Structure formats: structure tokens, C-alpha cells
Automatic annotation (TrEMBL):
Residues 188-229 form the tRNA pseudouridylate synthase B C-terminal domain. It comes from the Bacteria. The active site is at residue 45. Residues 30-187 form the Pseudouridine synthase II N-terminal domain. This is tRNA pseudouridine synthase B. It catalyses: uridine(55) in tRNA = pseudouridine(55) in tRNA.
């Protein structure tokens, strides 16, 4: 049932199903929350499942600050197949038997893709080139070259290696992996680059996001569950989970929300969540030259 009036201020942590776009999830959440003011903190491909963080009403202003946090994924990489999209949804462009690839070679390839690396995003991505999405250019037959970007792969772990024989009979290897990485990392590109480095090609066959910053699958609700009972994480709880906390008194709170830069020391790096009396979430600030500079006010 559609909720009437203004939607709640908070985050909705969705366990996105396969086969629906992130924008489709946003559209359904708008209906459930009774407001059009819903945004997301990073999309998932239609093939992918897992944690999708949505902001409702005032919480949409948190999202830009959440998008730079670390993310975690469970994935399956297929070695021996190259596809135009770097995942299972694209046309296979090359097939190479992969059973000769050793675990030692796989581990070496994984190590080379771990840490601070330069990654060329998948051509079938939403990156804009002269105002037009890369995937639109590729689908219209254009040749696309994207520049490498710095990303951080904190952890890239192989849990299982399996021999698989698809319908054409050419044996390939499926790797079940877990990846922890910075925002902006393409897991499809990791699969592509691992396969390319091993000389057999590779693509992604399954992807499930298990964490975005502090928000995990354990906090997430399926769309069916949200249809039954719409639930959300209040904005104060969401801010407390994502950012360091600074508690201020009533006078400091009044000054801050009116744009006064208070003198501070030792707040630390990055956004700080400011809480006033009665646990009221007031703002995000950052420390600059001994002052608290407002990033966003939420009252």
C-alpha cells in the first residue's frame, strides 16, 4: 500500500534481486515510502544481487558521503571465456581451454590485482564520454577506449576452483571469490584482467554485494519483505553507524546549524556526524584549520 504524505528520513538497505535495475528498485521504494525523494549510494548491474543503500528524504544528502566507503562482494569468475560485457550477459567473443591454468598461476594473478592498482573500467559501463554513456556508444557499434583509474582492492580471496564443461565442451574454470575494494572498482574488470593475465580470458558469472561501508546483508530487506512491512534505518542511526561522532551542547548546536564555524581540535579526518541534545542528528562537518566546517545540515 502506498504511504501517504512525506516519506521518512532514513536509509533503506535493500537486498536487490537479480533481473532488476537499481533504478527499478528506487522506483519501487518511492512507491512504498510515499515520496519521490529517494536516491541510491552506488548502483548494481541487473545481474547482480545484494546490498543496495537507498536514502529517503533528508537522508539522500548522506549518500554522497557514503559512496566513498569500502565495499565487499562474493563473486564467481569464469576463466576460459571472454565476453563483450565482461560478464555473463554479454556475447562470448573468445573461448580458450582453461584447465591448464594452475592454482599457483591463479594466486599470482590475484596478487597482481590486489592493493592500489590502475583499472580500466568495463566498456559496458555508465561512464560518460563527451556526454554519452560508454555502454550506449558500444551498443551503437563505436570503438570505446576508457582511461585507467586508481582503485584499491583491499582483499581478493579465492575460496574454490571448479572445472566446468559448458555446452560446447570446452572446459573452463570457475573461481568463487570474495573481494573487498574501494568504491569505483569494477568486479567485472577484475574478472576480465585476471583472465587476460592468465592468457585464457575471463568474465563474471555471478556477483553479490555483501557490504557497503557499515551496511551489511544482515541489515538488508528483500523487496518482498518491504512490500509486507516497509522499514528503514532512521537517519540518526545511519549517521552514527557510518561516521565518527561529535556530541555538542545546545549552544554549540544552535551556532553550528546557523553556519558558525566552531573552533575544534582533534576531530579527525573525513566527515563527522554531529549530535546535539536528546540524541538529535544535526549535521556532517569536517575539521579544517582548527574549525568545524559544515558539509550538510539535517535539521
Amino acid at each position: 500500500m502506498k504511504r501517504k504524505g512525506t516519506g521518512p528520513d532514513g536509509l533503506v538497505i535493500v537486498d536487490k534481486p537479480a533481473g532488476i535495475t537499481s533504478h527499478g528498485v528506487v522506483a519501487r521504494t518511492r512507491r512504498l515510502a510515499g515520496t519521490r525523494r529517494v536516491g541510491h549510494a552506488g548502483t548494481l548491474d541487473p545481474m547482480a544481487t545484494g546490498v543496495l543503500v537507498l536514502g529517503v528524504e533528508k537522508a539522500t544528502r548522506l549518500l554522497g558521503h557514503l559512496a566513498l566507503t569500502e565495499k565487499a562482494y562474493d563473486a564467481t569468475i569464469r576463466l576460459g571465456r571472454t565476453t563483450i560485457t565482461d560478464d555473463a550477459e554479454g556475447e562470448v567473443t573468445e573461448t580458450v581451454p582453461a584447465t591448464g591454468v594452475t592454482r599457483e598461476a591463479i594466486d599470482k594473478g590475484i596478487a597482481e590485482l590486489t592493493g592500489d592498482i590502475q583499472q580500466v573500467p568495463s566498456k559496458i559501463s555508465a561512464i560518460k564520454i563527451d556526454g554519452k554513456r560508454s555502454y550506449s556508444r558500444v551498443r551503437s557499434g563505436e570503438e570505446v577506449e576508457l582511461a585507467a583509474r586508481p582503485v584499491t582492492v583491499s582483499s581478493f580471496t579465492v575460496h574454490e576452483v571448479r572445472v566446468v564443461a559448458p555446452a560446447d565442451g570446452t572446459e573452463v574454470l570457475d573461481l568463487d571469490v570474495t573481494v573487498e575494494c574501494s568504491s569505483g572498482t569494477y568486479i567485472r574488470a577484475l574478472a576480465r584482467d585476471l583472465g587476460a593475465g592468465l592468457g585464457v580470458g575471463g568474465h563474471l558469472t555471478a556477483l553479490r554485494r555483501t557490504r557497503v561501508g557499515p551496511y551489511t546483508l544482515g541489515m538488508a530487506k528483500s523487496l518482498d519483505e518491504l512490500e509486507e512491512t516497509f522499514s528503514y534505518m532512521p537517519i540518526s542511526e545511519a549517521a552514527a553507524a557510518a561516521f565518527p561522532r561529535w556530541d555538542v551542547d545546545a549552544e554549540q548546536a544552535r551556532l553550528l546549524v546557523n553556519g558558525v564555524r566552531l573552533k575544534v581540535e582533534g576531530l579527525g579526518d573525513g566527515p563527522i556526524a554531529v549530535f546535539g541534545p536528546e540524541e538529535r542528528f544535526l549535521a556532517l562537518v569536517e575539521e579544517r584549520t582548527g574549525q568545524a566546517r559544515i558539509l550538510a545540515v539535517f535539521v
